[in-house]
Design a protein that fits this description.
Radius of gyration: 20 Å
Structural class: alpha/beta
CATH class of the largest domain: Alpha Beta
Number of strands: 13
Largest sheet: 5 strands, mixed
Shape: globular
CATH topology of the largest domain: Nucleotidyltransferase, domain 5
Number of helices: 10
Helix content: 25-40%
Distance between the termini: 24 Å
Strand order of the largest sheet: 3-2-1-4-8
Number of domains: 2
Low-confidence stretches: none
Length: 324
């Protein structure tokens, strides 16, 4: 049996095929080109899948896609995806299956990252796990009892929009205020950096960095690596804000582990200590007494999770036994 994972980003699509034992068989990276529309998107993935399918002989094959945004896993439909030119109501699994004869699953990309952490990174050691994807925004995936938690409408774990501030909080891309991602998502961190650069008392190096042009969390991480005090303070604030949001979630979910993934998590050496600091100050101590929190360095967590989920689906006779 072979599972094909398809991790769809705004710019590129990562594809990865897994056999039993998490053995990688094939990988590819193709442009997403969302401006070309859903039909072209489906056609290009289908063409790639048909080539792969032909190379796998008589083996049973299934595919699973992870796409950012609001998806309907039961019907295989994208309800809304901001990364794909704000597509709405786009059927994905049906057209792919008709073109390729390969059964397909659809999940939110953060759910796939959560499954990747659970099944591949931790070898199913932690049955209760929270994954946090830290990119432009903040996404989440929840594993409870070794099963992926969807919630009533398949919309569980929209943790980026957990409120950590009131109506006077930072503006979020969702249109609200005070959301977690407005503080610890890429755009929130960069926005704070530019605001800091206008204040007195910041380092000359930091001010120069922000005036040089468009900056990224990687630039801010490098500045912190070099000991820049303003950059270090920015990451400290990021860790404290992330810690406040995660502490609330851990009090509700009581996970074994929290896994950070995505581009911003690459700077975790500068902020993870402060997340743990927030955890250590919680009045209700028991949920944090054995909690493990770490940042994944695996750039393929989403495609690995999707491929592993496709394999699990095949093994179950294509029953959704992995969903809670």
């Amino acid at each position: 049996m072979i599972g094909i994972g398809i991790d769809v980003g705004g710019t590129y699509i990562k594809m990865l095929a897994l056999a039993d034992g998490n053995k990688r068989l094939r990988e590819a990276k193709i442009p997403t080109c969302p401006k070309d529309g859903p039909e072209n998107f489906v056609a290009r993935i289908s063409n790639e899948l048909k080539v792969w399918r032909a190379g796998f002989g008589t083996a049973k094959v299934a595919a699973a896609l992870g796409i950012a945004g609001d998806v309907d896993p039961e019907r295989g439909i994208i309800r809304f995806s901001p990364n794909l030119c704000k597509w709405r109501g786009v059927e994905i699994c049906g057209p792919l299956e008709r073109r390729t004869k390969i059964p397909c699953l659809l999940e939110n990309d953060a759910n796939m990252a959560a499954w990747g952490a659970y099944a591949c990174e931790f070898k199913r050691k932690y049955n209760d796990l929270l994954a946090v994807t830290m990119g432009t925004g903040i996404g989440g995936g929840i594993i409870i009892g070794g099963r992926l938690y969807h919630g009533a409408t398949g919309s569980a774990a929209e943790i980026g929009h957990l409120k950590i501030a009131g109506e006077d909080g930072a503006d979020c891309n969702c249109g609200g205020k005070g959301c977690l991602e407005a503080y610890v998502g890429q755009y929130g961190i960069v926005r704070r950096a530019y605001a800091l650069a206008k204040k007195t008392g910041v380092s000359a190096r930091f001010r120069k960095l922000c005036k040089a042009g468009e900056i990224s969390p990687l630039d801010l991480s490098r500045a912190a690596d070099e000991g820049d005090k303003t950059a270090l303070a920015l990451w400290r604030e990021t860790g404290l804000n992330l810690g406040r949001g995660l502490a609330s979630l851990c009090l509700v979910l009581n996970p074994d582990a929290v896994v950070l993934a995505g581009g911003v998590s690459g700077a975790s050496r500068h902020f993870l200590t402060y997340v743990k600091e927030v955890f250590s100050t919680q009045n209700i101590e028991t949920p944090f007494s054995h909690l493990k929190i770490l940042a994944s360095s695996n750039p393929d967590l989403g495609s690995l999770g999707a491929a592993s989920l496709a394999l699990d689906w095949l093994k179950s006779g294509r029953k959704n036994t992995f969903v809670l």
